[in-house]
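Form 12-C: Joint structure prediction
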Amino acid sequence: MKLKEIGEFGLIDLIRRKFPAKDKNLVLGIGDDAAIIKITPKRYLIFTTDALREGVHFDLSYYSYQEVGWKAMAANLSDVAAMGGIPTFGLISLGLPKNEKTEDVLKIYKGMNDLAKRYRCKLCGGDIFLSSEIIISITLLGETKPKFLVKRSRAKPGDLICVTGDLGQSQAGLEILKAKKPSKPGWLRKHLKPVPRINQARELVQTLNVTSMIDISDGFGSDLYHIAEESQVGALVFAGKIPISKSLLKMAKVLGKSPLDLALSSGEEYELLFTIKKGQEKKLKLLRRKAPDLKISVVGEIKNEKDGMKILDLKGNLKNLRRAGYSHF
Amino acid sequence: MKLKEIGEFGLIDLIRRKFPAKDKNLVLGIGDDAAIIKITPKRYLIFTTDALREGVHFDLSYYSYQEVGWKAMAANLSDVAAMGGIPTFGLISLGLPKNEKTEDVLKIYKGMNDLAKRYRCKLCGGDIFLSSEIIISITLLGETKPKFLVKRSRAKPGDLICVTGDLGQSQAGLEILKAKKPSKPGWLRKHLKPVPRINQARELVQTLNVTSMIDISDGFGSDLYHIAEESQVGALVFAGKIPISKSLLKMAKVLGKSPLDLALSSGEEYELLFTIKKGQEKKLKLLRRKAPDLKISVVGEIKNEKDGMKILDLKGNLKNLRRAGYSHF
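Section 2 - Result
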C-alpha cells in the first residue's frame, strides 16, 4: 500500500502497533504530543520532535527566514506546552541546499533562538546535511512533575471541552497570503509568528483539574478526534461557543469563507485544546483574574464513545463533526 | 557567502560563536558528538541527533530499506558511544515521498529498531513529513556518569592516539558498490551494516584513562583534526600502525587504490578514535584479555599545537596529515 492511501496517521498507528516501546521508565510513548520518560519519581522528561519543510510547511515567497525559524520552534515548544511542561534544551537538524546563503541560515537560527530564549530553552547542538529544500527538524527536551503531566487519553464523559485564545486566524492568514489578498496589521501574525502557550499551559495544569490536552496543530476538528480516540470517548461541540475574533470575521469576508469553517479546520494555531472536570467554575474565575490575558472558552462536552463526534451548528442542528485539518501524503 | 564556500564545519563554527548556549546544567554544547546535560550531580544525559538523506548518505540501488534504517541508527548510537555512554531512548523524524510503499517504510523502521534493541534503546515517538527524498533524522538520549564522560577536548601532548577495529572498509565497500566491482562475502558489511562500538566504548572508559574520544564518521584524518582543534594540540600518526584488514588489502587491489589512503579517509567507520594517558600498557593488556574481540591499535602520539598534524609515512618521511573525509556542501 502506498503512503498516500494509508495516510500520515494510519502510518503512525501501524508503527505503534508493530513496534511497541516498553520500558519501566517510559511513561508515555507514541500517540501523544511528546514522549515522557521518568528520570526520578518526581521528575518527568518531555522528549518531542517536529520537522518543517519548505514547500510543505512554509513558502519563502511570503515567509522571512527568521519567521521560518521562529515557526519551527513554536511548533515544538507547543508540544511541550501540551504536556504541561517547561522546555529546557533543543537540538536542531537542518537540511540545506548547497546554494543557500550563510546569512539566511543564520537568520533561521536567530528566529529559532529568539523564541526559545523567551522560555530559557537552550539550543545546544544539532546536525547539518545537504538537502534539495530547507528542512528544519527540531527536537526538544522539557520537564514536568508527574502531578502536572497531562495526556491525551484521560478525557471522561461529562468533562468540559475548552480552548485557549481564538481560532481560525492561522488558516485565514495563510489563505490571504496565498491568494495575495490585501491584509491589515495583525492579521498575519498568527500564521507567520505564532506564540506557543507554554506559560498558559502551566497556569492551567497548576490551577485546574485538566483531564486531557493537545495543542491545535492539525486543526480543532482533527485534534479533538485525537483526544477522543486516545481517551475512547465521543464529543459534542457547540458551534456558537467557538472563539472567533473580530479580525477573523473580516478576514473571512475578504476570503469569501465561513469564519466557523476556518476556525474548526485551521491548523498551526498552537492554541491549547483541553478537557476539564465539571464544577470548576470558581477555579476558572480565579484563573481568569490571575491571568487576565489567558482567554479560555468552554466549547463543548465530552460524551460516550458510542455518541460519536457531533457539533450543534449555529442553526441548532446536530451534525457530525468534520475531521478537518492537515494530513501529509 | 554561500554554504558551499563556508562548508559544513565553517557553518557549525559560526553558529557556535553567534549563538552560544550557556546553562548551569549544560555540561557540553555544540562542538562534540553530543550535548551533555546534568540531570543530577551523578547522572549526565546524552542528547544527540544525526540525519541521513537518500542520494547523499545512501542510495537505494544498493541499500535495502532495512539496511538504511540500521545505518541511520548506527550513526546515532555511535555518537552516544563516543561520549562513553549508554543509549536509552530515541525519536525518529522521517521525511517520506508520497509514492513510498508502507511496507518499505516499515522495513526502514525495522532496521532502526533491530539495532536499537541490541542496546535496549527504545524508540518512543517521532514525526513524519512529506519530502522529495527519504530523510531519516534520529535523536537519541543516553546516559553516563560524570566519571565516564569523555569529551573531544581533553587530549594532552604525550597522550597515545588509539583506534578500535580496522579502518578503510566502509569507503572501500562504497566504492566497490558504486563501480559495480565484484565483491566477496563480508566485504560490504562495514559499509551497509556497521555496528556501533557501544559496548567497547564502555569497556574503554571503565578501564583506561581516556582523555578524548570521537567516533570515526567523517574519516580518520578529519576526525583526528576535530580532536586536535577542540583540545588545541597537534598529532603525529604512524602510517605503519594504522590497522588494515586482509580484506581491505584485497578490496584496495580490486579498486586500484592505496589501502592506507582508504583507511585514513574512510568515513562512516563508526570505530572509536581516542587518546589515552601514557604508561597504561598493563591496563591495555588486561583489557585485551578481558575483551578479546576488542581490537585496539596505538597509531600515534599527541603533540603540541605548534607541531601541527603530521604523519610518518611508510617510507619514513614526515608529511602533513591530510584532512581527508566527507563534508557537506
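Section 3 - Comments
The CA atoms of residues 62 and 178 of chain A lie 8 Å apart. Chain A has two domains: 3-147, 151-320.
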